[in-house]
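Dear support,

I submitted the protein below through the web form. The confirmation email said the job was done, but the results page showed an empty box. After a refresh the structure appeared. I'm attaching both so you can tell me whether what I see now is the final result or a partial one.
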Amino acid sequence: MAGTSNGSNPDPRPEVWLCHQTVGPEVTPPGWLTDYERQTVGKFSGPREREYLASRWLIRQAIGKSSGLPPDQCRPVSGRPVASDNPSGLRLSLSHSHGLSACGTRAGSPLGLDLEPCQRHPQWEKVARRWFSPVEQEWLFREGDTNTFLKVWTLKEAWLKATGRGIAGNLQTLEVRKNFEIYGDRPEADWQAACCYIEGYLVTVVFRGSRPQWPKITLLEPPPGDFTLVDAVSMEASWEPLFQRTIRPKV
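What the results page shows now:
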């Protein structure tokens, strides 16, 4: 199936699919949810319920458009959606914040995705002092810029997702130095990072690959009010590339 095999392309381009969330009343959970997803959404109400449903709707759109299958035939693995279950072969990464959902896809190879609104973290200095390395603190405090901090934060989040780890105790496994020189705790020399602005958000993708690549970024129309799995249409969107970097192994 298209997009699910890397036999002809050992270094596939990562893809990022986005959609805005819609405001509306609570809805009956759609029938396409897995048992795990149905149990999870049952814990939410109001905007949080719609946020969860929008993200699960987007996952199926992303799998479908990456594989060539209709979205109603697509689903992620149970639990944290790090890979596709049907069809198999795609690695996934999910992020959602303040009204926007994003799903990254890549055939056969790990990736991590994080997005943040550009105006988030007004008290970022407290986070940096608590969790960042002395090297990072030194140059970030000298820069004194919220957006610079957010770039570092999304790099760390995307790195942890790509390497399959949580935040607790792991934020310093990736060190971001001045001019965005990046060092990770993995010995492989083929980790890459790409960062851009889109729709008022900072979007960062970390993946393994032999060369830096910009991800393919597609904004989809928002989900319908009842979250029917129609085949979503892409919308016009412009994005601004910021930087690409190879993540060097720490010596």
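Response: this is the final, complete result; the empty box was a page-load delay. DSSP finds five helices and 13 strands in the chain.
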